[in-house]
Specification:
This protein is mainly α and 146 residues long. Helices cover 55% and strands 5% of the residues. The strands form two sheets. The protein has a two-stranded antiparallel ribbon with strand order 1-4. Strands 2-3 form a two-stranded antiparallel ribbon. Helix 1 packs across helix 3 (46-55), helix 4 packs across helix 6 and helix 6 crosses helix 7. The longest helix is centred in the first third of the chain and has 21 residues, at 4-24. It starts with a helix and ends in a 6-residue tail after the last helix.
């Protein structure tokens, strides 16, 4: 079982990565920012809308577990500087910056994936197996305690 503090750290990491990654990725063939961002889902702040649009690969205005997992693992890969399948404390610190608290431990891809599944399931309020724009916003920018 993933400890609450590790889960909160992973949640914060995903929030940060979602905002940063949306601007770092190369544009998709069907850019959600085209046409004055008309493709963005109408929930949440701009950063979560952009992240939602990039994660919603099939453009059905919901994020499936597969889309969520794939996006999370792409973000994992961006942080895993040495490509060893483990987010090491040093890699997490480099991302978070010197003023952030030191992460407690390294995070394996399997642990990260399990945490993302738990986060996805907790965010899927209506339990339909997909995140709506509002559920997405609440999941990547949680206002609730875990």
């Amino acid at each position: 079982m993933i400890k609450t503090t590790a889960f909160k750290s992973l949640s914060a990491l995903i929030c940060l990565l979602a905002a940063v990654s949306a601007t770092a990725q190369s544009p998709l063939a069907n850019d959600p920012m085209a046409n004055n961002a008309a493709g963005l889902a109408p929930a949440g702040d701009t950063a979560s809308q952009i992240a939602f649009a990039y994660a919603d690969r099939d453009e059905d205005l919901v994020i499936s577990w597969e889309e969520y997992r794939n996006r999370a693992m792409r973000l994992f890969g961006h942080v895993d500087a040495n490509n060893d399948g483990i987010l090491q404390v040093a890699e997490l610190q480099a991302l978070a910056g010197p003023s952030a608290p030191k992460p407690a431990a390294d995070i394996s891809a399997a642990t990260f994936n399990a945490a993302m599944r738990k986060l996805f399931d907790s965010g899927d309020a209506n339990k339909d197996g997909a995140l709506t724009p509002a559920e997405w916003h609440d999941t990547i920018r949680p206002s609730r305690a875990f």
